[in-house]
Write a structure and sequence with these properties.
Trna Endonuclease, Chain: A, domain 1; 2 helices; alpha+beta; six-stranded mixed sheet
């Protein structure tokens, strides 16, 4: 029996949609895990998913000092359990958190390759800086110190996230 062409084409659309849906779910789960992690570290999460025409800020938090506004970009990935090996941290910050050894230049990772937080490139940093400046003006926070952190989240098959927190990952580009 021959499968109709429209049927095959239809499944490719479904697979594509499903892939995007699951990727979005991983992102939402990662943002929740990051917010939970920040709360445990003494941060006060002020807002999540602040949207503007040109982008989105994942998390805005108040640092444990009670004064510094922290703009957090969260990057997540879903992993199968594989033997742990060392991968270098991003050159712009040392990793801290549940899995990292602060300052040693390496992080335990269940899979080799590029960490999701490495995708916060110059363009993304510029976009986040602009969004944060606009947010600060609108909320009257221009007089407060502002910091940009990046959190990477790996989802293991056991369902427990592995979190890496890069404090002061980059400076504002504005």
């Amino acid at each position: 029996m021959t499968v109709p062409e429209w049927y095959v084409a239809g499944w490719s659309v479904v697979r594509s949609w499903l892939s995007r849906s699951l990727r979005g779910d991983i992102g939402r789960r990662g943002e929740k895990a990051a917010a939970d992690y920040l709360r445990k570290q003494g941060y006060r999460v002020m807002a999540r998913n602040i949207r503007a025409r040109w982008g989105e800020i994942d998390i805005v938090a108040l640092a444990p000092d009670g004064h510094t506004v922290v703009v957090v970009e969260v990057k997540s990935r879903d992993l199968s359990v594989k033997p742990a090996e060392k991968v270098p941290v991003a050159p712009n910050g040392s990793a801290t958190g549940e899995s990292g050894a602060e300052g040693n230049g390496e992080v335990d990772s269940p899979a080799p390759g590029i960490l999701p937080e490495w995708h916060v490139n110059r363009d993304k940093q510029r976009k986040l800086s602009g969004l944060a400046a606009t947010m600060a003006r609108r909320l009257g926070w221009s007089d407060r110190p502002m910091r940009f952190d990046v959190i990477g989240v790996d989802w293991l098959t056991a369902g427990r996230p592995r979190v890496r927190h890069y404090v002061g990952a980059f400076e504002s580009t504005l």
